[in-house]
Design goal:
The protein is mostly helical and about 280 residues long. It has a single domain, classed as ABC transporter involved in vitamin B12 uptake, BtuC (Orthogonal Bundle). The chain has 13 helices and no strands.
Length: about 280
């Protein structure tokens, strides 16, 4: 089975999948722990406006999309902090506006537009070598930043009031987290696509949360699950000539339902320490 990785494009796809798996495992954990999944979805769909703008202005994909996504992310974050009860409405509006702008910019772009399907559903099999270096650098930066602020992120994720009492700059930390999420989303779009990006960010972290007891363990398990789902998805895509991004997310979805089933079985299974009431009363 491993002979499929004898091809250079498959090795590139595997390398891209592993790097994105680490990025999404770390950032997805923080997104799930801080209940920022909907905001992540808003960033992902608003990023389509950046894709369209980059094509219209003939800018390189990464700077154009990242700049637009950061602007949208900071706007969402500011609204979330100042008017939490309206945050979902504003995020939904920016979500739709970004998609609409992306489509209009692409319509106005001179010449024949590129294959938009690659941005909607991913193009992991065509990731160039230069993008791998960008992903590697991004993964290292995210690892260094999260490592440097790990204790602050830990306090902020589980008890915001306690973090403020300790003197942790919660607002700056929140904007930093949203900025890192925007970077993770833009890179992940190249691999699994705009429509599927949220699944790779959230499903492994959701599964990991159920079977771990610390934020660090949750990150490690989420990264491992992402790599596993990527390997399974790439193998299925190669064997059955299917879209790789969709196969990766399909494997993650299968893992999601297996985790729910295991959790349900575990809850129904009586604990070994359980003692019938009659016996506990000596009857």
């Amino acid at each position: 089975m491993l002979e499929i990785f004898d091809f250079s494009f498959m090795r590139h796809a595997l390398a891209a999948g592993v790097l994105v798996s680490v990025i999404c495992g770390v950032m997805g954990t923080l997104a799930v722990a801080n209940r920022l999944v909907f905001l992540s979805g808003g960033i992902a769909h608003a990023a389509y406006g950046g894709i369209g703008l980059a094509f219209y202005m003939r800018w390189p994909y990464l700077p154009g999309t990242l700049g637009f996504s950061l602007l949208a992310a900071f706007t969402m974050a500011a609204v979330s902090l100042k008017a939490r009860y309206r945050a979902d409405t504003v995020i939904g509006a920016i979500w739709a506006l970004g998609m609409a702008l992306g489509i209009l910019f692409i319509d106005l772009s001179p010449g024949y537009p590129v294959d938009l399907m690659s941005y909607l559903f991913g193009s992991i099999l065509t990731v160039p070598g230069t993008d791998l270096w960008v992903m590697l650098a991004t993964a290292l930066v995210i690892a260094l930043v999260v490592g440097a602020y790990y204790n602050d992120f830990l306090a902020f994720s589980y008890d915001e009031e306690f973090a403020q009492v300790r003197g942790i700059p919660v607002r700056r930390l929140y904007f930093l987290l949203v900025c890192l999420l925007a970077v993770a989303v833009v890179l992940t779009i190249r691999v699994v696509g705009l429509i599927l990006v949220i699944a790779l960010l959230t499903i492994p972290a959701f599964i990991a949360e159920k079977f771990t007891r610390s934020l660090l363990q949750m990150m490690a398990v989420a990264c491992g699950l992402n790599i596993l789902f990527t390997l399974i998805g790439l193998t299925l895509a190669y064997l059955y000539n299917l879209t790789a991004g969709a196969c990766i997310i399909l494997s993650a979805g299968a893992g999601f339902f297996i985790a729910l089933l295991l959790e349900h079985i575990h809850k129904r299974k009586p604990s070994g320490t359980d003692v019938p009431m009659a016996l506990s009363q000596g009857k």
